[in-house]
Description:
Elements: E1 3-16, E2 20-27, E3 31-37, E4 56-62, E5 68-77, H1 86-102, H2 111-125, H3 134-147, E6 168-171, E7 176-178, E8 190-192, H4 194-203, H5 208-211, H6 218-235, H7 243-251
Helix pairs in contact: 1-7, 2-3, 4-6
Amino acid sequence: xxxxxxxxxxxxxxxxxxxxxxxxxxxxxxxxxxxxxxxxxxxxxxxxxxxxxxxxxxxxxxxxxxxxxxxxxxxxxxxxxxxxxxxxxxxxxxxxxxxxxxxxxxxxxxxxxxxxxxxxxxxxxxxxxxxxxxxxxxxxxxxxxxxxxxxxxxxxxxxxxxxxxxxxxxxxxxxxxxxxxxxxxxxxxxxxxxxxxxxxxxxxxxxxxxxxxxxxxxxxxxxxxxxxxxxxxxxxxxxxxxxxxxxxxxxxxx
Length: 254
């Protein structure tokens, strides 16, 4: 069988037969793909620890008829801190679910940028942030930019009126913010405050260090979470499995 090597992040896994697992992988060179980890469910398997979600791997894979097979595996980073509390675990799981929903299988378009962004986001999620969701939302905005889905945040999507310090509306179906005059043009619109708009604009332009120090007020946090939730739902091809649990974790302050 022909073989190839690549770096990868484990996005998810499912059982195959009695001893094997199928891993959904985001690879740095070949996009998203599924591969078989033979014997991974056996207690003495060297592959068992490598099948945990959001683990970074160096892989050698053999090309199979329907699914490729992992022939060699080395763990680059298992990200143990992401499993240390329910908040980090849930946010990391959501990140992987989001990638699984938005990235097409074997699509190599901008994949190196997406992979490097994902690695950086997982590392940021391991660190303390003033606002726990800032690394995750920063990841979402940059992923949307790479994929060409970035919402319009500086002007009304219908009339181009510049918006900065006033209450506006947001519509996922229209692709961004709407001025008060055009808010009713979208059935899915909802209002967001001037502070929320400012924070959303900050997410689109600030660097990593400033991103982790953003600390919006409680009302803005609710609005920002809703903006990203509705926008990601609109652009996802299927249900993002962990989104409801993430919302419950946020409601509990985790």
